[in-house]
Design brief:
It comes from Lactiplantibacillus modestisalitolerans. The protein is of the alpha+beta class and about 240 residues long. Helices cover about 25% and strands about 35% of the residues. It is built from seven helices and ten strands.
Amino acid sequence: MYREIATKLVAAIQNGEFKVKLPTEAQLMERYQVSRNTIRKAIDLVYQQGLLRRVQGSGYYITSIQLEHKTVVNLSARSMFTSNLHPRNLVSKVLTFDTIKGDTDLSRQLGIPVDEEMYRVVRLRYWHDQLYCLEKAYYPRSVVPYLSTEAVNSSIWDFIHDAYGIGIANSDDYLSLTNLSAEEALLMGLDHGATYLALDSSNYYKNNGLLDFSHTVFVYPDLALYFHTTNLANN
């Protein structure tokens, strides 16, 4: 229940319903008709995503993570059912959507048996009519038995949550600078060997099973990365 409330709180923040600070716990209990304990656990999830600042004696304030002339990627925002990594309202152009069997290298990278079937999704993603990233993602069919074309063209994470009731429990993320391969350059219409920021992510659900692996190359201009760190010793 508290995860569902957390998802609603994130949506309310993103939609501008809460612009400066969250309502009080009592007000949120009334709004969502849940207990104080549920509200506190939901707020803590949202706080872990870096969307809130805790001010002792005053409550929770909405964190502004926007920078002038920058597009901010929130790398803290994957502790709930779905991934809020990218900006909202991205438009996808699907280049490849098929089922493959993992070879030795890919299976080792994913930590799954060789020849296990998986969905492969390769898509270009656009924001404000400008190329944002190239994304290659793999979903083991042992975890995601069916993935719809509609989901691949919109939000894969929303589909997985709605269809299977699972989502990200934890993630391993690796940021690096990458030189575009000939294939990547061709797909994006950019120069072979040009240097861009890449993110390799392995996402796991609650029993530590692999949910997906993705390789994303960001090409949108003026990107900024946001991390949220909590000093637990001071809480």
